[in-house]
């Protein structure tokens, strides 16, 4: 009702405006949203991915001009799409309800007016390597508390369920809620495409099991044509077309899950739609790019699978939707070839939940702390603490604050969860300091016991000796090999120290100077303080590392 009152159902200026939304939704096999449990069950995977066999698509012996992409109308194109590119589906704008177009396009504009599309600074090759800004601006919308990680950067979603008022901007709030409803409708349209895909496979005597399309987030890309932003690189296969999004397979997704993309183009400087099809999505083979059999090793030189079938470029008309169904993302890569107009693309995905939601990282930290408070504290508890401490620091807290003051202000929903994670980090850091202190005291007591202490150390006060003896007894009370305890904690500290240095370098990379000041990294308030960066304490782990290294020499 709130969205309708704001005019979200307007169909002015939209492709395919016809007003038969109910009939078309029924024809697409849509389930009524009034039955959310039935809807979720219909969209989820019927067979767990572990029980599925991942099939590679066939290559092609088709003769083609190796200087360019194959496109619709080329000899053999249709057969190629049915074989090597099976699982790619296109839905033209005219087959999609007019209200669907209108709501999506208004949501795009509302988020743009609020400045929610931002340039991401990624670090594709990991800490200690070059940082790179994206050619497109983006925002993430999804289930409350969900995130999406790609190229070393974690994005934090604006919630589409009960979003905050965004500084009193009701239009943005309505846009986010509308995107949640559009996501459900697009998921149902994806299910209809999956049913067609399964039927075609069954006709060939192949498995009809399909993965999930229960989308839990959408990554919305805002793109400009060449010459309107940063200079675009040429696409790598042929070196001709400007590339807005380089070759990739989408990561961090549930195996065998589908991807749906709604595409809208508009004339620059206006909100008028661009009825041409100058933008294209390019496809190529990429065996085991993602999925359960994904290779972690680069293909040997000369062994690329990309040209085992001709790469194709599919024109994208305004208002079209396209789908990467089931295992398509496992064995194909895609790229976006820039057109002559502005473009929005909403890419709906089934992101992995474990390790990618606020709830899962909070539960991991709480579980680690509860283990350490038990009566039978052992090496397993210490390792759980150390792992949780590193994960919450490097995969969550630093990932949030590195994106700047504007990002923090815009992501109002995350303020409370981030404060909670900082509180859990402090408790885990204190637990780590306690363990290190215990081991350092135990090391001194061991050195004295073996007669290796200095004369000054041997004359130290009795109270300190008593404390260190208790620390030694506590360490021995872990019922573990002491050398293994020292080695395990030392390895964790060394890894965390290296990552802290890597993050310090990342936060001071020269790339940030190319962005607005409020888009540059914020100091993390690890130890509290209303002003970000206040209340800092020394996070240098070198003294503790040297002490434990010395203990291992005993």
Keywords:
554 residues, alpha+beta, 8-stranded mixed sheet, 15 helices, 15 strands, 39% helix
Portion in strands:
5-15%
Q: Helix tally?
A: 15
Number of β-strand runs: 15
Q: Rg, please?
A: 27 Å
Unreliable sequence segments: 1-32, 297-303
Structure explained in plain terms:
The chain is of the alpha+beta class. Helix content is 39%, strand content 15%. The chain is built from 15 helices and 15 strands. Strands 1, 2, 3, 6, 7, 10, 13 and 15 form an 8-stranded mixed β-sheet that branches. Strand 8 and strand 9 form a beta hairpin. Helix 9 crosses helix 11. The longest helix has 35 residues. It is elongated. It starts with a helix and ends with a helix. The N terminus is likely disordered.
Write the layout of secondary structure elements.
Layout: H1 2-5, H2 21-27, H3 36-43, H4 77-83, E1 88-91, H5 98-113, E2 118-122, E3 132-142, E4 147-150, E5 153-156, E6 158-159, H6 170-203, E7 217-223, E8 233-234, E9 242-248, E10 259-266, E11 280-285, E12 312-315, E13 321-324, H7 328-331, E14 332-337, E15 342-349, H8 358-372, H9 379-401, H10 404-410, H11 415-449, H12 455-458, H13 462-476, H14 482-507, H15 542-552
Parallel strand pairs: 3-6
Antiparallel strand pairs: 1-13, 2-3, 3-7, 4-5, 7-15, 8-9, 9-14, 10-13, 10-15, 11-12, 11-14
Helix pairs in contact: 5-6, 8-9, 8-11, 9-11, 9-14, 11-13, 11-15, 14-15
């Amino acid at each position: 009702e709130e969205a309708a009152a704001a005019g979200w159902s307007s169909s002015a200026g939209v492709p395919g405006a016809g007003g038969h939304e109910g009939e078309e939704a029924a024809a697409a096999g849509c389930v009524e949203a009034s039955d959310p449990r039935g809807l979720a069950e219909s969209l989820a995977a019927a067979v767990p991915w572990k029980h599925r066999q991942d099939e590679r698509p066939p290559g092609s012996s088709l003769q083609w001009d190796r200087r360019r992409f194959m496109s619709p109308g080329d000899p053999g194109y249709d057969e190629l799409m049915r074989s090597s590119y099976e699982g790619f589906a296109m839905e033209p704008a005219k087959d999609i309800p007019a209200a669907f177009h209108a709501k999506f396009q208004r949501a795009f504009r509302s988020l743009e007016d609020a400045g929610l599309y931002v340039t991401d600074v990624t670090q594709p090759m990991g800490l200690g390597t070059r940082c790179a800004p994206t050619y497109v601006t983006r925002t993430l919308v999804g289930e409350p508390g969900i995130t999406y990680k790609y190229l070393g950067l974690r994005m934090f979603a604006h919630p589409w369920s009960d979003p905050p008022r965004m500084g009193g901007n009701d239009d943005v709030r309505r846009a986010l809620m509308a995107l949640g409803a559009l996501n459900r409708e697009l998921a149902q349209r994806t299910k209809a495409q999956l049913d067609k895909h399964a039927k075609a496979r069954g006709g060939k005597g192949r498995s009809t099991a399909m993965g999930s399309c229960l989308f839990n987030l959408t990554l919305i890309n805002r793109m400009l044509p060449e010459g309107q932003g940063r200079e675009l690189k040429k696409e790598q296969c042929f070196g001709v077309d400007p590339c807005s999004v380089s070759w990739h397979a989408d990561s961090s997704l549930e195996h065998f899950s589908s991807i749906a993309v709604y595409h809208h183009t508009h004339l620059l400087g206006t909100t008028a739609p661009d009825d041409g099809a100058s933008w294209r999505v390019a496809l190529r083979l990429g065996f085991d790019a993602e999925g359960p059999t994904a290779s972690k090793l680069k293909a040997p030189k000369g062994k690329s699978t990309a040209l085992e079938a001709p790469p194709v470029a599919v024109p994208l008309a305004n208002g079209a939707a396209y789908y990467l169904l089931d295992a398509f993302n496992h064995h194909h890569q895609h790229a976006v070839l820039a057109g002559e107009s502005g473009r929005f693309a909403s890419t709906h995905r089934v992101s992995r939940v474990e390790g990618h939601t606020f709830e899962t990282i909070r539960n991991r930290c709480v579980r680690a702390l509860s283990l350490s408070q038990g009566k039978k504290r052992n090496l397993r508890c210490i390792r759980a603490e150390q792992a949780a401490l590193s994960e919450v620091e490097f995969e969550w807290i630093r990932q949030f604050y590195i994106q700047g003051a504007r990002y923090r202000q815009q992501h109002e929903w995350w303020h409370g969860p981030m404060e909670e994670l900082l509180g859990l980090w402090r408790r885990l850091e204190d637990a780590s300091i306690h363990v290190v202190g215990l081991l350092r005291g135990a090391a001194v007591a061991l050195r004295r016991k073996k007669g290796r202490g200095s004369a000054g150390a041997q004359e130290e006060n009795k109270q300190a000796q008593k404390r260190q003896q208790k620390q030694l007894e506590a360490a021995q009370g872990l019922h573990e090999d002491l050398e293994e305890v020292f080695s395990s904690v030392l390895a964790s500290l060394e890894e965390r120290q290296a990552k802290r240095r890597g993050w310090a370098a990342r936060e001071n990379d020269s790339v940030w100077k190319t962005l607005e000041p409020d888009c540059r990294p914020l100091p993390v308030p690890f130890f509290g303080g209303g002003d970000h960066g206040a209340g800092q304490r020394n996070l240098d782990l070198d003294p503790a590392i040297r002490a434990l290294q010395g203990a291992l020499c005993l």
